[in-house]
Design brief:
16 strands, globular, alpha/beta, Rossmann fold, about 375 residues, 2 domains
């Protein structure tokens, strides 16, 4: 006789196909988003114990929550202190970990039972926001492979970009030996001469290291029309800090592309979906996401939405987070504007204190 399996050890089998279909359809409206968000909330309330306790402390249950805006936002640091997963961690295909730059060796963990949802979210969004109508482009990656960094969401993201959108000549230029400057210089010279568009992708700090290395050699390039650059993340103490206007000016002059071809991806380990801007000709650039993610600007202490145009803490509701929690309170300051939001940096002063108090409230409720 087969052993009975506890419901919490089963994947969200009924939700995942509907979620994949929702992501693949570009014309989904607010009602469809809300209905699926409420289904995910009910699933996570039932199977994610830490989240359930937090919701109960807030008086939010599947009976009382009628809109996705009412789903409690979990402070992002909760991923460092608790297991936020509907399935046991050992039943998950992959765990992505944060870099640990804010609290030393304490890393946030995001458990993915399967990568099908994450992968579809990335590829559809990337095609629309970065590829510019091309099916494939020759790529250079300024980040280690996911074989070297299996718990890095960025390594997996870039591997997807390379596999799905790169030409056969595409490759990594950063490994255990460091940045392969000689090989990259040879490639940049080759594409400059051939007229073949080229895409350079990597963490923002990797671009700083590369630009410093090229400057030391007295080198600049003029990449062909249609070339583009994608940077992600901040400098995280991995390189010298740069003012962002100076950073994009340096990218444009070093690689001979307009600032409008320098695209920033804003993402995080704790999300399954990324935001993009339309280039950084003017800063701050408006960032936006696809139809399966929504962003609000909140007061971190009250959880109330800030009036349009006023600063607050960004909270993202990502339907791709089917196994963890859909709604995350970040520590990033932003302003809601037409077409998306402006990212204004990390919380400081009273806003940072508000984020810390929100974390404390969440942990007290979830560990009670």
């Amino acid at each position: 006789m087969a052993e009975a399996v506890h419901p919490s050890s089963q994947p969200a089998s009924g939700i995942v196909p509907d979620l994949l279909a929702f992501i693949a359809r570009p014309d989904e409206g607010e009602n469809s988003f809300n209905a699926l968000a409420l289904r995910l909330f009910a699933h996570q309330f039932q199977h994610n114990t830490a989240f359930q306790k937090f919701c109960q402390q807030r008086g939010r249950t599947p009976r009382t929550v009628k809109s996705w805006c009412d789903i409690p936002a979990v402070p992002i640091n909760g991923f460092k202190d608790l297991t936020l997963s509907c399935l046991p961690p050992e039943a998950c295909e992959r765990v992505f970990m944060t870099s640990g730059t804010t609290r030393g060796d304490v890393k946030g963990r995001h458990y993915h039972p399967q990568l099908q949802v994450y992968d579809l979210s990335m590829t559809l969004n990337f095609r629309q926001r970065f590829m510019g109508g091309s099916d494939r482009v020759r790529m250079g990656l300024l980040f280690p492979s996911e074989q070297l960094m299996p718990n890095s969401s960025l390594a997996h993201y870039l591997a997807l970009a390379l596999h799905n959108f790169g030409t056969p000549e595409s490759r990594y230029y950063l490994d255990t030996e460091g940045l392969q400057v000689d090989a990259l210089c040879a490639t940049l010279a080759q594409v400059q001469a051939s007229g073949e568009p080229f895409a350079l992708l990597g963490a923002s700090y990797s671009f700083v290291h590369l630009m410093d290395a090229l400057q030391a050699r007295g080198l600049q390039f003029k990449l062909p029309a249609g070339s583009r650059l994608l940077d992600t993340g901040g400098f995280k103490g991995q390189s010298r800090e740069m003012d962002m206007d100076a950073f994009y000016d340096a990218l444009a002059s070093t690689f001979g592309v307009p600032r409008s071809a320098c695209i920033n991806m804003y993402g995080m380990t704790e999300l399954s979906t990324q935001f993009y801007d339309a280039g950084n000709a003017v800063l701050p650039a408006v960032k936006s996401g696809p139809h399966w993610i929504r962003t609000r600007v909140l007061d971190p202490l009250t959880g109330q939405e800030m009036p349009r145009g006023e600063r607050g803490i960004l909270a993202h509701t990502d339907l791709g987070n089917f196994n963890s929690v859909t709604t995350i309170l970040t520590e990033d300051v932003g302003v809601a504007v037409e077409g998306g939001f402006l990212l204004l940096g990390r919380a400081q002063g009273a806003q940072a204190k508000g984020c810390s108090l929100a974390v404390d409230e969440f942990l007290r409720a979830a560990q009670s």
